[in-house]
Write a structure and sequence with these properties.
5-stranded parallel β-sheet; alpha/beta; 11 helices
């Protein structure tokens, strides 16, 4: 089983790459963001740790009871408000670092246990992990290959505005928080250009798989 990291800046088109792989390769695909969301749900590993780390913020979807953060009966069905979390971390680097220090180790532990489980089963040819912070969190050293999905900033910004309705301010904040194109390329085993058509993208992926 070959273990491959899929990474790249927001709006680069990693989802399109994963869709092709899911349909054409005997594999398992995991998104680090999906794992993080699971671990941040009420009762899960990171939930109360995050609440206690940011007592000055009202991060929950419903009314927060600040005096009872450790009382599961109060918050057991009260998920985080994604927009509040997003505003908090992308407007303040210290907040982002603090949240990452809680969530990222838990996500890595979950993923590495899942990788081992799939290796023990021996039923798939590839294990693909899609993670934006592949380099920062050292996944490039833990997996066999790192594929960098590339698209120019203007193209990425247009996609985010059109497909997700992101504001220019939000797009700029997210992009500024991510690695530069040069840094991604420095650590990449393969670079997948996604500036043009899906047919060209799929051809690029197919060529890489054929080489492997």
């Amino acid at each position: 089983m070959k273990k491959i990291v899929i990474t790249g800046g927001i709006g680069a088109g990693k989802t399109a790459v994963l869709k092709y792989l899911q349909e054409n390769v005997k594999c398992k695909i995991i998104r680090a963001d999906d794992v993080a969301h699971i671990l941040m749900e009420p009762h899960e590993k990171c939930y109360y740790e995050i609440l206690n780390a940011f007592p000055e913020y009202d991060l929950l979807k419903y009314t927060t009871v600040q005096n009872h953060l450790d009382n599961e009966s109060v918050n057991d069905k009260n998920p985080f408000d994604k927009e509040k979390l997003s505003r908090m971390i992308f407007s303040n680097e210290d907040n982002r670092d603090k949240l990452n220090s809680i969530v990222h180790p838990a996500v890595k532990e979950y993923i590495l246990e899942d990788v081992q489980s799939e290796e023990d089963k021996g039923e798939i040819d590839y294990y693909f992990l899609e993670v934006a912070l592949a380099i920062e969190e050292g996944y490039d050293k833990l997996f066999d290959e790192t594929w960098y999905v590339y698209a120019g900033e203007k193209i990425r910004a247009k996609r985010l505005e059109t497909n997700r309705g992101y504001s220019e301010e939000k797009i700029t904040g997210i992009m500024n928080s991510q690695l530069s194109e040069e840094e991604y390329k420095l650590h990449a085993t393969h670079i997948i250009c996604n500036d043009n058509s899906l047919d060209e993208l799929y051809t690029n992926i197919g060529n890489i798989l054929h080489c492997d």
